[in-house]
Amino acid sequence: MRKAITYILLLTMVTFVSCERNFDIKLKDNQPQLIVEGYINNQLPEYNYVVLGRSQSYFEPGFENIPVTGAVVTVTEGTLLANNTYNWDLASKRILKEGRFPQFNDQELPGVYFDPMLKADPTRALIGKPGKHYLLEIEAEGKQYSAITTLLPLIPIDSVTSGFHFLDEDEDEDTVQTKARLTVHYKDPDTIGNTQLYYWSTIGSRNDFGWGGMGTNRFTPGTDDLVNGQYIHLTLSNGFAIGDSVNYYLVSVERKVYNFWDSFNKARSNAGPFATPVSLMNTISGNNVIGCFSGFSMSTKSLVVQ
Predict the structure, then answer these.
(1) Tens digits of residue pLDDT in 91-130
(2) Does residue 2 fall inside a structural domain?
(3) Which end of the chain has fewer CB atoms within 10 angstroms, the N or the C?
(4) Structural domain harbouring 151
């Protein structure tokens, strides 16, 4: 199911609504929320998509009712004017649709909305541009929602290197494999407030749909508040097999997008419905909705792990 519904983590994490199961405690049943997970990036048109779902009881046995289908979803490009208002280019508006797409083996993904140009003419599919602003509008089940995100200037990757080798033991398979960790090298811009996310894909993960399939974690290393303008050498704790081909993505995001995914990571690490709740930093406008429209300005490097 990971290929088809990688957004289940986000959806189920915001549905900590319990019921009576061998407990005397009665918890209030919350009204279902619309869950929005949307992306616009400058490199991978097949990874520009919007996922719509609805929350449900934490103890609900299945996921069949989570996807929200039949919605009207549009993305429009625009610019920010000097008076801090937006000028939206209506000619750029794209209507995203559900359907089967060759990039994903023609599998049907209910509640996942793509640009139909991915199927008709991938060279003309929706793609983001650094410096531009994007308006997401949703009409779902008779209600309207919206969000705005910005693609920031790119931060170039100087290089990605492998090292810090270690032995990874797999007790189930009774094997030992030499792995390496990756270090990304880049210069932080000389402007305060930059925030980045880090993603990667390997041969084994490239068939996993969605940004969740780009790595075992979304890695949010913090802000540049204490390292502004410095040269960064950042090593990830994840191990990669020797000989793996890896695409590494340095993703510049707005602070509000960073805050959402930072809160997502904290909420995901909570244990069960009775853990201390973590509020997700919602960026979607509308009633009874939570989620994020993420603008990703990406720089990419590829390497073979040594």
Answers:
(1) 999 999 998 876 666 777 889 999 999 989 999 999 999 9
(2) no
(3) N
(4) 8-304
